[in-house]
């Protein structure tokens, strides 16, 4: 269950959609009304879908799998990077590199290249390079860090992907669909929610709206991670207890 209330969503402006002339008819079930040419999103539908998305996110985190967050639009970049870092999930807030998912081996190769440059600085190789070569490697490292630094720990394709704006992130959307990766996304009134497995009808332009949805999603992931840790601790304690019992029995015999 998400912790966001109707009033909190209202205060954050989650209900404000786009102009009526820009609407996508597929969003009709999620539109409550139209005022002054602006569509108003039904926040009761938002809460219901946010609860579903949060429950699914908790299970993914509990299983130990990764969720990739994608938000390259200006008003979402900082919000996503700040929130997602706290739950140790991969994210992309710079340009989406085509084939990042569908050609994942190439993506991993770029990440390994970044790691190899870092290794040069620790094993003494860096000191053997000329000034020009070091400058080239430094610039190459900076470019790789900008594009792939936030997904460096993603060793395999993510279990799910979260998009803030499916129109803006249409390449990532289609790559995920092609690979049958579950898609979570904020869907505004100008988008087609049928393209997404877990649509969350919400204003995807306002920073407050993006923040409150991301907070709910990240809290759910945090809950899943805590459940996973507690389950692991219980399992470890169970193994220790079993070992102690076996040891005592051996001594008695």
CATH architecture of the largest domain: 3-Layer(aba) Sandwich
CATH topology-level fold name of the largest domain: Rossmann fold
| Count of helix runs | 8
How far is the N terminus from the C terminus?
A: 53 Å
Strand order of the largest sheet: 5-4-6-7-8
Note the beta-strand portion: 5-15%
Q: Main β-sheet, in a few words? A: 5 strands, parallel
Assign the CATH class of the largest domain: Alpha Beta
Q: What radius of gyration results from the CA coordinates? A: 23 Å
Mean pLDDT: 90
**Class inferred from helices and paired strands:** alpha/beta
Summary tags:
Rossmann fold, Helix Hairpins, three-stranded antiparallel sheet, 8 strands
Question: Can you walk through the features of this model?
Answer:
The chain is α/β, with parallel strands linked by helices and 253 residues long. The chain folds into 2 domains: 6-98 and 158-246, Glucose-6-phosphate isomerase like protein, domain 1 (Rossmann fold, 3-Layer(aba) Sandwich); 102-156, Helix hairpin bin (Helix Hairpins, Orthogonal Bundle), CATH 1.10.287. It is 53% helix and 13% strand. The protein is built from 8 helices and 8 strands. The chain has helices at residues 6-11, 43-62, 74-85, 104-123, 125-128, 131-148, 170-178, 207-252, and strands at residues 16-19, 31-35, 38-41, 67-70, 91-92, 160-163, 183-187, 198-201. The chain has a 5-stranded parallel beta sheet, sandwiched between helices. A 3-stranded antiparallel beta sheet has the order 1-3-2. Strand 2 (31-35) and strand 3 (38-41) form a beta hairpin. It is flat, with a radius of gyration of 23 Å.
């Amino acid at each position: 269950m998400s912790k966001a209330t109707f009033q909190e969503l209202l205060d954050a402006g989650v209900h404000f959609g786009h102009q009526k002339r820009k609407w996508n008819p597929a969003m009709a079930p999620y539109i409550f009304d139209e005022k002054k040419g602006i569509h108003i999103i039904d926040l009761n539908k938002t809460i219901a879908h946010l609860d579903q998305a949060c429950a699914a996110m908790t299970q993914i985190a509990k299983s130990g799998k990764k969720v990739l967050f994608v938000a390259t639009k200006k008003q979402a970049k900082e919000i996503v990077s700040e929130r997602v870092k706290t739950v140790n999930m991969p994210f992309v807030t710079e340009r989406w590199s085509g084939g990042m998912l569908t050609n994942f081996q190439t993506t991993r190769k770029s990440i390994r290249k970044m790691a190899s440059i870092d290794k040069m600085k620790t094993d003494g190789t860096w000191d053997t390079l000329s000034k020009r070569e070091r400058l080239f490697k430094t610039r190459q490292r900076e470019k790789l860090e900008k594009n792939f630094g936030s997904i460096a720990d993603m060793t395999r394709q993510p279990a799910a992907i979260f998009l803030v704006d499916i129109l803006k992130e249409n390449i990532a959307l289609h790559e995920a669909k092609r690979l049958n990766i579950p898609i979570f996304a904020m869907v505004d009134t100008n988008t087609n929610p049928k393209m997404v497995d877990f649509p969350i009808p919400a204003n995807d332009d306002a920073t407050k709206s993006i923040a409150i949805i991301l907070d709910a999603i990240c809290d759910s992931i945090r809950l899943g991670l805590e459940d996973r840790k507690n389950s692991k601790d219980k399992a470890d304690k169970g193994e220790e207890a079993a070992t102690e019992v076996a040891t005592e029995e051996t001594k008695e015999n």
